[in-house]
Amino acid sequence: MLKKQLIMEKALELFAKQGFEATSIKQITDYCGISKGAFYLSFKSKDELILTLIDHFMIQITSDIDYIVKNTNDDDKLLYEFYYTTFESFQKHSDFAKILIKEQSQTLNKELIEKIHSYDRLLEKLILSMIDRLYGDEITHTKYDLMYCIKGFMSIYSNLLFFQNAPLDLQQMSQSLVEKTTILAQHTTIPFLSEELVQITTYSMHEKITKEQIIELMEQKIAELEDSIEKESLILLKQHLLEPSLSPAIVNGLQENIRNHPHCKWIAYLLRNY
């Protein structure tokens, strides 16, 4: 296991027991069985570690949802696949989600808050693209209200996953939410939210990522990964970005190779949107 990955996994266990503030770097290094110097080779500070953990888990969730929205060809199945993938991903990462929900209500860390909001904006963008595809001009005046309703369903129903011990049928939950969302889309007539109001009340996204930034991320992951099909795929994709020579089918195949690797999902997401 890579030392950076070991630190992240062990720190997550401590954060779950004690919270972010109560956990010191010394406790993390003692728990990992490494020196402080080894910690600082991977992370500059505890805050950087926390932000890296947020990135790691939010990338898994956002990338899974992004892939389903962009690759489900049947519109009749899209909304169901969206909800099912969302809650399946929430369930898979429920331990970290519980920590994040708790810490969000207590933290005054501006960088942490902005990080969480940046992923929230990505999610809103995905939901709006799905709404436009499913309903088009029919709900132009109410699509932002519908987007917030979908986010509300995601938030409220995810609490059942995070804080209830009862087993849940994700298929039935998803089918139920598809029905509720469809009713709202077809019968809501009084709009409240507009694009301008949404922009005013939320954080704006950062500037669009550049090819150079993607290549920099790829080089970082190539250096971190051991020899594998994912590493080879990253090398070929990087070469293609620098000098396009591969067919779309090959590029899609290479992206599929990295899509499910936990340390490559963000790059796969960025490439899909580049």
UniProtKB/TrEMBL annotation:
Transmembrane segments: none annotated. Residues 1-61 form the HTH tetR-type domain. InterPro entries: Homeodomain-like_sf, HTH-type_Tx_Regulator, HTH_TetR. SUPFAM superfamilies: Homeodomain-like (SSF46689). Residues 208-235 form a coiled coil. Residues 24-43 bind DNA. It comes from Niallia oryzisoli. Pfam families: TetR_N (PF00440). This is TetR/AcrR family transcriptional regulator. Keywords: Coiled coil, DNA-binding, Repressor.
